[in-house]
């Protein structure tokens, strides 16, 4: 059985929407998930944003309000405890701040951060207001091109070099609550395994990915059970 013991000194954890599901934030691809209710081409691509920025802002404003009203769960808290050990890298595809609010250190938000705004024109970043609108000017260049600081399809995920370095050095790779359908994150288990790491999946439903061990169940039970 894989545990985060001394033999697993360098650990990379990749989390997905399943980590925050029990905090009341929707997943994407489960029945009734976000992609059953919204067209991803319209709300999660640069082309969709160019066509209808107000619709995209509505989608993210609603999710920001949900995030603010939600609280970290036992799985976020367990990963926060883990993040205080040396050699641990927490990478998340989630754009919520629940890991940080649980006290996690150094979280790598590869798909961005719902709490931040980005200017599509000049690349400036700042704290997002509760409600963003297409008319709001960038505080740096004045362009009316502000967007949530999140990574859409066709865009380069953030901090890839750092993630690839951590994967190459990992003794253990753990995937928590992600369907493993979106690249490049979907390829991390295979990369870590090719570099010599053991791989473990903690998920409600197995993703069918490249794992030495798979444990099924809700994140709030599996993650504390593995960490502590
Ligand atoms: C529980 C649970 C509980 C539930 N407890 N578990 C072919 C055509 C076109 C494009 C491509 C192509 N092949 C590859 C691509 C590229 C594309 C891609 O992967 N497309 C695929 C869909 C095919 N990727 C990109 O475009 C990315 N960029 C890119 O590749 O750049 C080039 C590059 C290459 C190589 C290196 C570097 C760069 C960008 C992807 C951006 C994704 N953006 C989104 C939306 C923005 C953020 C947001 O709005 O939140 O990110 S899409 C959406 O999916 C979101 C998520 O982060 C991401 C992953 O979803 P996740 O987290 O896995 O959620 P679900 O819902 O899928 O799964 C939930 C899981 O939880 C399930 O397994 C449940 O069982 C589980 N669960 N309850 C435990 N209680």
Describe what is shown at a glance.
The chain has helices spanning 18-21, 34-37, 40-43, 46-51, 53-69, 74-83, 98-101, 160-169, 188-194, 219-227; strands at 11-15, 88-92, 108-109, 112-119, 125-127, 146-150, 172-176, 198-203, 213-216. With 228 residues, the chain is an alpha/beta fold. The model has no long low-confidence stretch (mean pLDDT 95).
Keyphrases for this structure?
zinc, hydrolase, single chain, 33% helix, SIR2/SIRT2 'Small Domain', 228 residues, 9 strands, alpha/beta, transferase, Rossmann fold, 10 helices, binds ligand BJW, NAD-dep_sirtuin_deacylases
Give an overview of the whole structure.
The protein folds into 2 domains: 136 residues, TPP-binding domain (Rossmann fold, 3-Layer(aba) Sandwich); 83 residues, SIR2/SIRT2 'Small Domain'. The protein is 33% helix and 19% strand. The strands form 2 sheets. It has a 6-stranded parallel sheet, with helices on both faces. The two termini are 14 Å apart. The mean pLDDT is 95. Ligand BJW binds next to helix 1.
Q: How are the SSEs placed, and which strands pair?
A:
Elements: E1 11-15, H1 18-21, H2 34-37, H3 40-43, H4 46-51, H5 53-69, H6 74-83, E2 88-92, H7 98-101, E3 108-109, E4 112-119, E5 125-127, E6 146-150, H8 160-169, E7 172-176, H9 188-194, E8 198-203, E9 213-216, H10 219-227
Parallel strand pairs: 1-2, 1-7, 2-3, 7-8, 8-9
Antiparallel strand pairs: 4-5, 4-6
Helix pairs in contact: 6-10, 8-9
Bound molecules: ligand BJW.
InterPro entries: DHS-like_NAD/FAD-binding_dom, NAD-dep_sirtuin_deacylases, Sirtuin, Sirtuin_cat_small_dom_sf, Sirtuin_class_III, Ssirtuin_cat_dom
Cofactor: Zn(2+)
EC number: 2.3.1.286
